[in-house]
Amino acid sequence: MDRLTRKAYELRRDVIEEVYRSKAGHIGGDLSVIDILTVLYFEVMNVSPQNWKNDDRDRFLLSKGHCTDALYITLGDRGFFDKQIAIDTFSRFGSEFIGHPTMDVPGIEMNSGSLGHGLSLGVGMALAARMDGRSYRTYVVLGDGEMAEGSNYEAMMAAGHYGLDQLCATVDLNGLQISGTTDETMKSNDLGKKFRAFGWNVIEVENGNDCLQLLAAYKEAERKKGCPSVILAHTTKGKGVSFMENQKKWHHGVMTEEQYQKAVKELEGVLA
C-alpha cells in the first residue's frame, strides 16, 4: 500500500470514530472525499500550520461543507490543531468543530455549508492572486449533487473567461445525494462537456478513491496554463465500509454499536 493510500485509510478510521461519538455528520460523503483531501493536504498543496498566515499559501475551499467531518480530521492530522479534540467534541455544544466549516477553526479559509458558493469564492481568490502578483493556487472541492446550483455555472463561466489557471476544482462524483441518485434528483448529464464549454481543462479520474490517480491528475492540472482545470473524480459513497458503500441512507446516518465495530474491523483489516 502506498503512503497516501495508507494515510487515507487511517483518516477514514478517525472519521468513523468522530462520527460515531457525535451521532452526527455525513459519513457517506466523508468516506468518498477523504482520498481527495489526503492527496491535496499531504502531497499537492503548499499549505501547512507553519505557513498558514503567509499570503502565498495555497487556498482550499470545501464547497460541499456538510463533509467537514473529514476536513477536520485531515487538518488535525496535518497539525493545524489537536485532532483528538475534533474527534471528542465534533458537533457538541460549545465546540468550534460544528457541522459545517467555520473560520474559527485553524486552516479553514471560508464558512461553507449552503451549497453552490465555494466555486464563486474560489474564482475571487484566484483573481486576487493574479491582481496581487501572487503565486498561490486555489483548490475547490464540490459535490456532484451540488452541481444543480446555478451559481456554479456563473462561476464556471467567469473562471473560463478570465483564464484562471491558478484555479483547480474537483467534483466528488459519488452519484448519490440525500434524496437519491444525482440522476434521479437533478440530472447533470455530461459535466465534462459543460466545463469544456466554459473553457476549462477537464481531467477525468476513473477511480477517484485511488490516491495515485488523483495525484497524477493534480500534477497535470498544475502544468496546464491559460485556463482553469477541473478534476472529475468518480468516487464511491461510503468507500471502505462495506455496508455503507453506494447506499443513499448513509449520506447522513447514525451507526449502532454493532455497525461501528464492523466498520472499525473492516478499516483496520485494510491497514493490518
Radius of gyration: 17 Å
Tally of separate helices: 10
Q: Kindly, what is the distance between the CA atoms of the first and last residues, rounded to a whole number of angstroms?
A: 11 Å
CATH superfamily, by name, is Thiamin diphosphate (ThDP)-binding fold, Pyr/PP domains
Reading off the top of the CATH hierarchy, the class is best stated as Alpha Beta
Structural class designation: alpha/beta
Strand content: 5-15%
Note the main sheet: 5 strands, parallel
The name CATH uses for the topology is Rossmann fold
Average pLDDT, all residues: 96
User: Quaternary status of these chains?
Assistant: single chain
Major sheet: arrangement of strands: 1-2-3-7-6
Tally of structural domains? 1
From the spread of the alpha carbons, the general shape counts as globular
Which ranges are low-confidence, i.e. pLDDT below 50, for 5 or more consecutive residues?
Answer: none
Order of helices and strands: HHEHHHEHEEEHHEHEH
CATH architecture: 3-Layer(aba) Sandwich
Helicity range of the residues?
40-55%
Topology, number of strands: 7
